Amino acid sequence: MTTLMIEYDSRSSLINTLIEAIKQAGAKIIEPQDQVLTEKDQVLEAYQKMFGKRKGNKYTDNEILIFNSKLNAAKTVAKYV
What we know:
The protein is mainly alpha-helical. The protein contains three helices and no strands.
């Protein structure tokens, strides 16, 4: 399955006809997600998953080193798999 995002003039009768035809062919309308995580938020979520949630989101240098080492190792292994 592939997701397609389009920007169009909703007042255009031709585009509305095309969209209706695409929907009848089996396409679904998917509402956009309200919250898009930034890279910083994704990293914080990964830290919390690995080490648990901390008050103030404070992690030691050793924990950060371990996390980054595992992440880089996973990327390296993925190249050769």
